[in-house]
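Example 9 (inverse folding). The structure is encoded as follows.
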């Protein structure tokens, strides 16, 4: 009996010593994004935010240098490429949005050419996330993860980038 108990305790100790030790939270960087598979990328490309399964997600496209936030929004308004659309990506930003202006600051400010009620919450989120990402790539990144959004009607509110 004593030998059996000793054998069981020894086996238990060996098994327990072989396990994976618990660790704390390990930072792993930003969430996944869909990367373009064509073209060459210089200085990291441009990150646009499209919609997939009702979620706004980042998509990195190759670009010659960095684009301004307005330049990134212009690409966003053109919609996903054929390859991106084949991967299930779409946009809620209408191509006729017009000129959107982005100003740096704490937080940055996005000026729409018309009332924000013309855009769905996902379209507005696509614009804010794309402008915030482009601002970061040009060194104009605000500390806040979003922007003040305003329109000619005088409405202004803060919109955080919600993706993933």
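The amino acid assigned to each position is listed next.
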């Amino acid at each position: 009996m004593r030998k059996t108990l000793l054998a069981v305790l020894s086996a238990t100790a060996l098994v327990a010593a072989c396990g994976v030790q618990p660790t704390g939270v390990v930072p792993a960087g930003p969430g996944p994004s869909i990367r373009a598979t064509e073209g060459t990328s210089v200085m990291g490309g441009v990150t646009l935010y499209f919609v997939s399964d009702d979620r706004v997600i980042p998509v990195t496209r190759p670009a010659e240098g960095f684009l301004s936030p307005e330049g990134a929004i212009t690409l966003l308004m053109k919609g996903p490429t054929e390859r991106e659309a084949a991967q299930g990506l779409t946009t809620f930003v209408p191509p006729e949005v017009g000129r959107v202006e982005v100003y740096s600051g704490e937080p940055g400010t996005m000026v729409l050419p018309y009332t924000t009620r013309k855009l769905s919450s996902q379209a507005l989120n696509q614009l804010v996330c794309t402008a915030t990402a482009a601002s970061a790539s040009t060194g104009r990144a605000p500390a806040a993860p979003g922007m003040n959004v305003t329109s000619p009607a005088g409405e202004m509110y803060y919109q955080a980038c919600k993706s993933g």
